[in-house]
Specification:
This protein has 737 residues and is of the alpha+beta class. Helices cover 49% and strands 21% of the residues. Among the domains are: 127 residues, 2-Layer Sandwich (Beta-Lactamase); 151 residues, Alpha-Beta Plaits; 233 residues, Alpha-Beta Barrel (TIM Barrel). This is Diguanylate cyclase (GGDEF) domain-containing protein.
Length: 737
């Protein structure tokens, strides 16, 4: 739209300029024509005046000749006629008048006939002028000396001692004008001469331009005025034009079209420029956004997203820059690693949101500590590390650690919860690590592991024994990694019995690590190490595949009523891919989801049950059944069971161990059984080791149980034989797996 508007404006401006230019050029052209006509008229005027002057001059010469002659005028007339007739065709006749202007004689030159008069009939002023001429030639109207009213008479006074008379040469005005104009007029001009508004001569063939294009001038002759009007013929007028009238509009149209094309090109270029400008601005915005993202990524790469303090990468960069300088000038630096005691239990009990907020508050407290640290970083889930230069003694380092313990100790108020936390700290000096950043962090980690053995508020300064323990832990992790890859983490199955029918109703899958020496390690010995590494994902995937594959074989063997139970830890339950892993493997091995029981500890169950779209809701949506391993009933557990009722509640081994001798534990177990019956929840006992415990359970209608007294965990290849002879072994001999 803007382009069309510009083209219309350009066309309008071009039209206006064309008209203006045409008018100006036409005005200039007409001015030049008028100037040229005036110049040509002036030339004609000069020639007419020249002819009259030459005529007067001839009269003066003739007068001088007559003055010096002694002959009578009549004798001189033939001679004068011959002299004048050859050069002045306009002289009609010569008349001689006496002193009183009476007729004396006449000589005919070019006139048609002689004119007989008595005297010259001039008015008194004219007669007086002639009488006073004193030998001066005088040009006057011919009057009665000619038959034509506009003719002129050139009087030559002859006044000497012997003679007094006048010689009048009568001039045909029309002939004079004709001969002069014909001889001197420029080709293409036309002339009209008037005297007293009466036309006395016309040299014209076309009067078309007479009124519009004419030039006038006046010549005074013998007390008379001749008005000359000069104008061109149409052909002459067209030749006199400086500029062709058609050229200007055509040129204007051409220029207008040219400028319209130019404006169109300019607009197109402007549009391209605008597009390029917009693209450039967009590119600049993208570059700016990319720079911001890169800065943000650079910031995030060295800062913890949760607490906004520097992360492990930033810490390593700082230490790698500072430690060599300290080594050169023999300086000292202490690193203190802080770990929140039992942070996992806080997360499980109150939820991850509370745990995350606790870490944010803790980072804020460390930053506002009275001691100004040279560097603060979050290097792990619940681990922080502070660096202080200039600390040289164990006492100074311990004082700093005590200060950190004191700032962690006050309760945290988070979402109406009073959260009490404590921290364990590992201390290491730069010189003990040979001023190497990686060694220093390993030393603080080793000292922290030793400090955590105190359970709460542990503070340990690194020494060589800690390094050996750390090395042992690292060696164990390496062996675990190899065991997972080599599938040496086995699955054993412990039967779950119906105490009345003494039949096996289900199998609980338990992990066992077969070490290089053939010994089996229980999950509590290695699961925490696996959870701290990326091994938890492949381990969980392998566990599900092996259990469901084994269970498929037992279903194919005819044990369709058999259920399978799998324990999941907090880290396994927190895996985002867990629901999809379950769904995929159930479909792959064609196992009914309702036959699979997912067993979790009570504290994990309580922390996840309140989440509407949490992992428990997703597991129930798949169709699997939830089992809770409980140690008792409290308000939190009961509320969780209202929000997300489990299918099966297990009485844990810790609670069942002293039953029936411990009355408190017996009361708690009895309460759990009654609560399950009232809520329609199945109940099962774990860790049955005596007949008295079986009797206790049967008396209270707790019909499902498992434990070493009934049967020990066995490898998968022994399960089928055990299913064929389901009687409990009732063997008190310690079992060696």
């Amino acid at each position: 739209m803007k382009q069309w508007r510009s083209l219309i404006i350009t066309a309008a401006v071009g039209l206006v300029l064309t008209i203006a230019a045409a008018l100006l050029l036409e005005q200039y052209d007409h001015k030049r024509i008028a100037e040229r006509m005036r110049a040509d008229a002036q030339s004609l005027e000069g020639n007419v005046r020249g002819s009259l002057i030459r005529l007067l001059y001839a009269g003066e010469i003739a007068g001088e000749l007559l003055k010096v002659s002694d002959n009578e005028p009549a004798q001189l007339l033939p001679q004068l006629r011959r002299a004048v007739n050859s050069f002045y065709q306009s002289v009609q006749h010569i008349t001689v008048l006496d002193q009183q202007l009476n007729f004396v004689d006449q000589e005919l030159l070019n006139g048609p006939e002689e004119i007989i008069i008595e005297s010259y009939q001039g008015n008194p002023e004219q007669r007086l002028e002639l009488q006073q001429s004193n030998n001066t030639t005088v040009l006057m109207p011919a009057l009665n000396l000619s038959l034509k009213p506009h003719d002129l008479a050139l009087f030559l006074p002859i006044m000497n001692v012997d003679q007094h008379y006048y010689v009048a040469m009568v001039i045909d005005a029309q002939e004079l004008l004709k001969s002069t104009i014909h001889h001197h007029i420029i080709e293409g001009y036309q002339v009209e001469v008037k005297q007293n508004n009466e036309t006395i001569y016309t040299f014209a063939g076309n009067s078309e331009l007479k009124n519009e294009w004419n030039t006038e001038f006046t010549i005074r002759v013998a007390d008379q005025q001749w008005q000359f009007m000069v104008w061109p013929t149409p052909l002459k007028f067209s030749e006199m034009h400086v500029v062709n009238s058609y050229i200007v509009p055509l040129l204007g149209m051409f220029m207008t079209g040219f400028f319209m094309v130019l404006v169109s090109r300019i607009k197109l270029q402007q549009q391209r420029y605008d597009r390029l400008k917009l693209n450039n601005e967009e590119l600049n915005r993208q570059l700016q956004k990319r720079d911001e993202i890169e800065k943000q990524l650079a910031y995030l790469s060295e800062h913890d997203a949760l607490t906004e303090v520097p992360n492990r990468n930033a810490l390593l960069r700082y230490l790698q820059e500072r430690l060599p300088e300290l080594a050169i000038r023999q300086g000292q630096l202490v690193a203190i690693q802080l770990n929140v005691d039992h942070f996992k239990e806080i997360n499980n009990a109150l939820g991850h949101k509370i745990g995350d907020e606790l870490l944010r508050r803790l980072a804020h407290r460390i930053q506002r500590c009275p001691i100004t640290f040279d560097f603060i970083a979050r290097i792990g889930g619940d681990e922080f590390l502070v660096v202080k230069e200039g600390v040289t003694t164990d006492q100074q380092a311990t004082e700093i650690a005590d200060q950190l313990v004191r700032i962690v100790k006050p309760e945290f108020y988070i979402n109406s919860h009073e959260v009490y936390a404590s921290a364990s700290l590992g201390i290491a000096f730069a010189n003990d690590a040979d001023f190497d950043a990686d060694n220093l962090l390993r030393h603080t980690d080793a000292a922290l592991n030793q400090a955590k053995k105190s359970d709460y508020h542990g503070i340990t300064i690194y020494n060589r024994t800690h390094q050996s323990e750390l090395s042992k832990r690292q060696f164990l992790l390496e062996q675990l990694h190899k065991a997972v890859e080599a599938h040496r983490v086995e699955v054993h199955y412990q039967p779950i019995f119906d105490l009345r029918s003494k039949h096996v109703t289900g199998l609980e899958a338990l992990m066992r690590w077969r070490q290089d020496d053939g010994e089996l390690a229980l999950p509590e010995e290695f699961l925490s190490l696996i959870e701290d590494t990326g091994l938890i994902v492949p381990l969980t995937d392998n566990l599900l595949k092996r259990v469901l594959n084994d269970y498929r074989e037992w279903l194919a063997a005819g044990y369709s009523q058999l259920t399978i139970h799998i324990n999941l830890s907090g880290k396994q339950l927190a895996l985002p891919e867990l629901p999809e892993l379950l769904r995929t493997n159930l479909r792959r091995y064609n196992v009914p989801p309702e036959n699979l029981y997912i067993e979790i500890r009570e504290e994990l169950y309580c922390s996840h049950a309140c989440q509407e779209d949490g992992v428990l809701a997703k597991l129930r949506a798949i169709g699997v059944k939830l089992t809770v391993d409980g140690t008792g009933l409290n308000f939190i557990t009961m509320k969780a069971m209202q929000l997300c009722p489990p299918y099966l509640l297990k009485i844990s081994q810790a609670l069942l161990s002293d039953i029936p001798h411990n009355k408190v534990q017996a009361l708690i177990a009895d309460t759990m059984i009654k609560f399950a019956h009232e809520r329609g929840i199945h109940i099962c006992a774990v860790g049955v080791e005596t007949q008295q415990q079986i009797d206790f359970l049967l008396q209270r209608d707790c019909l499902l149980a498992q434990g070493y007294f009934l049967a020990r965990p066995v490898p998968a290849e022994q399960v089928k034989g055990m299913l064929e002879q389901p009687e409990p072994t009732n063997n008190d001999t310690p079992f060696q797996e």
